[in-house]
Amino acid sequence: MIKVFNLKSSKYKKKLNIFLSKRRLGNKNEAKISRLILQDIKLNGSKAVLKYEKRYSKNNELKPSIKKINLSIKSLDSKIKNAIDYAYKRIYKFHSAQKIKNISYRDTLGNVLEYKYIPIESVGIYVPSNLPSSVLMNAIPAKIAGVKKIVLASPKTSGKLDPAVLYAAKKVGVSEILSIGGAQAIGCLAYIQKVNKIVGPGNIFVANAKKELFGKVGLEGMIAGPSEITVLADYNSNIEHVLTSLIAQAEHDIRSQCILVTKSKKLATEVNKKIFIYLKNLPRKEIALRSLRNNGLIIIVRNDKDITEIINEIAPEHLEINVKNYKKYLDKIKNVGSVCLGKFSPMAATDYNVGTNHVLPTLGSAKFSSGLNLNEFYKKISYINLSKKGVEVIGKKAITLAEYEQLIGHAQSIKSRIRRK
Question: Could you report the per-residue pLDDT of 275-290, keeping only the tens digit for each?
Answer without folding.
Answer: 989 998 899 999 999 9
